[in-house]
Amino acid sequence: MLKYNVVFKFEVDGIVDKPDIIGAIFGQTENLFGEEFDLRELQDKGRLGRITVELRRRDNRTEGEVVIPSNLDRVETALIASMIENVDKAGPYNIKFQLVEIQDIRAEKLKKIIDRAKEILSTWSKEKTLDIREVLNEVTSSVRTGEIIEYGPEKLPAGPNVDKDPNLIIVEGRADVINLLRYGYKNTLGIEGATGRIPESAIRLSKQKKMVIAFLDGDHGGDLILKQLINSDARIDYVARAPQGREVEELTGKEIAKALSNMMPLGQYLKRQEAKAEVREARTATLAQTVQPQEVVVQEQRPEEVITMPNTVLEEVKKLPGTLEGIIFDESWNPVEKVQVRDIIPKLENGGSNNATYIIFDGVITQRLLELASERNIKLLVGARVGGLTKRPKNVKILTFTDMLT
């Protein structure tokens, strides 16, 4: 696909024809910058298109326009334009070329697509009308995502205005930056996940800004990154979070706008998190007082089958509420591994944790999870709550944290 049209106007001190103009262009640019920029070679390779000439004769003079289609990059196209402006003879006559413009063909094409999309929407029946902003965001997303740059020596993913805008939005990674670009947020910087250290260029940039927003996923990973930002020397003024369990990279434009409108000053956000932690501690304290300290006994459907939960396991359970994490135990209640709640189903589907016998997690016990537990001979599931279940396999016992208080 051709990228640019390079448009010139020219004047000749005499009467010439189109072949004279084209011959002058090819002849006087030959080997100026080696074979790599020979116009005939570039045409043969499809890097330049067919040169078109329109001319007019007036008072023993010739004038007109030349258009050269280019599939080269911006720098190479500019060099070709400069070479042609250097042509000064057409046959025996003086000729002067002047660059008029370099048309971005892709931008023109996208503009036509967007304009046509507006026309389609305006004639669509009201019952079928979509949100025009969302549609246009989709139409132009390829342009906006193409604007992503690399910032600093760490080559962090960033929006094109990350240096110029007085405000800064810090996100986790490249996918978050791309999604925000889709909806016009160009002052973003990705710090590339919870790597244990905030990049130095991100810290320096934050100190140069009028306002800095940490916009993070609504999961435990987002909590970890916020802690790293706070413990670093970075400036953070506000905190915005994706909805619980969601990631910034998957949010729609409306969801992004809502999350940013609900952002909190850092101090206020931390106080709210402390209050939530106190509530969790109060709940776990009640749990510890209510459940017998030696063991938790779970009576199965068949009277002779009893599951005994050691007190050491109960201590681990107290720490789970609010973490979105889970622990997989073997038959002897030895911890096999600690996992994110969202990874439990994929792990069971892929045959992971072969020694799994009991699973306790801060999430919802769903029908799919229950069926997988039954297939893998899991004896007990303990979750934060139970979803809408239609069938309950007899070989799996289910409890919630609330059940354990009774």
Automatic annotation (TrEMBL):
Secreted as a keyword of this entry, yes or no, is no
A GO cellular component annotation here is: primosome complex
Enzyme Commission number(s): 2.7.7.101
Q: Which PROSITE patterns does this chain map to?
A: TOPRIM
One Gene Ontology biological process: DNA replication, synthesis of primer
Identify the keywords attached in UniProt to this record, alphabetized: DNA replication, DNA-directed RNA polymerase, Exosome, Magnesium, Metal-binding, Nucleotidyltransferase, Primosome, Transcription, Transferase
The yes or no answer to whether the keyword Magnesium is present is: yes
Listed GO MF terms: DNA-directed RNA polymerase activity; metal ion binding; poly(A) binding
Which reaction equation describes what this protein catalyses? ssDNA + n NTP = ssDNA/pppN(pN)n-1 hybrid + (n-1) diphosphate
Checking SUPFAM superfamilies in the record gives: Toprim domain
Q: Where is the Toprim domain?
A: 166-244
What CDD domains does the entry give? Answer: TOPRIM_primases (cd01029)
- What function does this protein fulfil? RNA polymerase that catalyzes the synthesis of short RNA molecules used as primers for DNA polymerase during DNA replication. Also part of the exosome, which is a complex involved in RNA degradation. Acts as a poly(A)-binding protein that enhances the interaction between heteropolymeric, adenine-rich transcripts and the exosome.
The UniProt entry's sequence similarity note says: Belongs to the archaeal DnaG primase family.
Q: Self-association or partners: how does it assemble?
A: Forms a ternary complex with MCM helicase and DNA. Component of the archaeal exosome complex.
Q: Which PANTHER family match?
A: DNA PRIMASE
Q: What is this protein called in UniProt?
A: DNA primase DnaG
* The organism of origin for this protein: Sulfodiicoccus acidiphilus
